[in-house]
Request: fold
Amino acid sequence: MKTTRLRYWVLACSLGAAALPIPAFCKTLAYVSNSIDGTLSAYEMSESSGALALLGTVSAGKVVMPMAVAPSKGCLYAVVRSAPTRVLTYAIDRHSGVLAPLAEAPLPDSMPYVSTDRSGRFLLTASYSGNQVAVSPIDADCTVTRPALQVVPTGRNAHAIQTDRSNRFAFVTNLGDDQILQFRFDAASGRLLPNDPALIKTKAGEGPRHFVFSPDNRFVFVLHELSGTVTQYALDATSGLLTAVTSVASVPADSGLVRCVVQAPITADRLAARAHESARTTISAADIKLTPDGRYLYTTERTSSKIALFQVEASTGQPRFIEHYSTVSQPRGIAIDPQGRFLVATGEKSETVAVYRIDNGTGKLTEVGRYPGGKGANWVEIVTLP
Reply:
């Protein structure tokens, strides 16, 4: 009897309400970092409607920005970009979803991106202003307490770092030098080793920023901040090397926006003040996410405050632009719940958090509601417990 209940619980939590009724012990949480307030907000998401209920906020530090959830779902990592630059570890309560501070560790620079390797043993961070990436050890209890064990110089403006789904390869986007670094990743030691070739170039002036892997690990989709294009790369499973396949615009030609020209490195203080800037006329693409089944791709553009929807062709992996949606002001971060039912968007100039229902047949978004948030909201993570 216990075995039957456990199987039902696992299946229901993973498939969501569309497949099976959600048991009371399944809980979906959304966490938002508020860079100006220096706090993290925790919300419980309704399994049926997607509506958010604020559980509370915890203190972090000014210019707290990127976050990542441990694969075990036991910890959340939040990076503080103001001095002293550091990563904070919070425990995620298994029953309530409330955050509790556990530990902190120094980081070698101001890091606008953080992820874990697929095993959850190493924390990976990228520094835009420091032109470098770092690997920090994660302790057995999922806390980060020690300094980085490896720091690797990159080209200008390293903006994101992730390992692929096999955990054998890692990639780093360099916005300022229009290139993507290719590494082999030693999952035992956490060390990054240059692949051969060590990098590939993107088109001049595109500014590669964030990227996502297809569920089958065959493709990588890269969002370019300065041009607003999405480029599909084929990922060789044996060599770990990327090959460009196609590029698609996420910003319409008649939008009135022009391509941005990369400026000097942005300081932490400059980032904190960005939420108060007047409207810009340049393209400023920010985030990119795929639904768990890989059928729909979403990107954000901050100047126009829009979310773009793409449909991904199943056999070729090629994205096709569908339409835009107006959203919160200056949307920096978006996330999709693990069941692929809802998308959450946060805006650096908005003090509300927006939730959208994802149509399973078309990928189209329908707004569920907007909920009170903090100042300078920029990053969102969603996790389903247990």
In short: The longest strand covers residues 192-201. The chain has a mean pLDDT of 91.
